């Protein structure tokens, strides 16, 4: 029991109660703070339970040691040791330590047209979010049409500053970009006919150029294609040395690569020789054989060649014709 502190002498009353002796002793001064204790026994918080009777009814074993509940009826914490209960009556009477400051952020949500505005907190402190829902407005009238953008400014279009007139865009899956390439359609046509072929009688030359055609420079690389052609040739057929002739369409010179071909049949009268496309090697879309570079003028030659025989032959230009078109190359590099 308390008694005046610091007095040199006190009276200490003694009282006997049955076999016990009760004596009042003087209270001493407050001592120094003791050493730091060990860490508290960790709990597993199980939440609230109505009363202790309900808590005792739980089928707990030693495996449930350190589980803790708040008994609502007593506002006390009970901790299960595995064998018995430890009760903390005053656990909720003292204020807890200061928690971290709440860092509130905001979020806006568009609600349905005509709905009411609302607000709610989501998340847990200290990272809560104030979510405000605003009613969506009604759709307004359409605005004025904008100015059309340039294809060259698109993010998926490569540099088209060097594109030739009439080019189209081709997709390159290697770098996911559109590149300018010449239109795949045939360009032209260019043709010569009639008097533009050199007629001749009693020709004895082994090789004779009977026509030339100039194709102007194009802005793209291409392969010239013989679309149609014909020429009339008369050769004797009664002697063993009668001539066997071929007609070739060549690119660049009289000895350039063959791009067209025809063969007359020996007859005493005129033979109409039809000219068709022909190349002296296999071609693919990537081939560069018998092609013309971009911005380069080309010349086409029609050449009659004697394969065998010595007799003369006659070239008739009436009805003669040659038509050429340009096929753009797949690779323009």
Q: What does it look like?
A:
It contains one helix and 21 strands. It starts with 13 loop residues before the first strand and ends in a 5-residue tail after the last strand. It is rod-shaped, with a radius of gyration of 54 Å. Helix content is 2%, strand content 42%. With 333 residues, the protein is mainly β. Strands 12, 13, 15, 18 and 21 form a five-stranded antiparallel β-sheet that branches. A five-stranded antiparallel β-sheet has the order 14-20-16-17-19, with no helix packed on it. A four-stranded mixed β-sheet has the order 3-4-5-6.
List keywords for this structure.
333 residues; 2% helix; five-stranded antiparallel β-sheet; mainly beta; 1 helix
Chain-wise SSE layout:
Blueprint: E1 14-17, E2 20-23, E3 44-49, H1 52-56, E4 67-71, E5 76-80, E6 85-88, E7 105-111, E8 118-122, E9 129-135, E10 168-172, E11 177-181, E12 187-193, E13 200-203, E14 207-215, E15 222-235, E16 244-251, E17 258-262, E18 267-274, E19 276-277, E20 298-308, E21 313-328
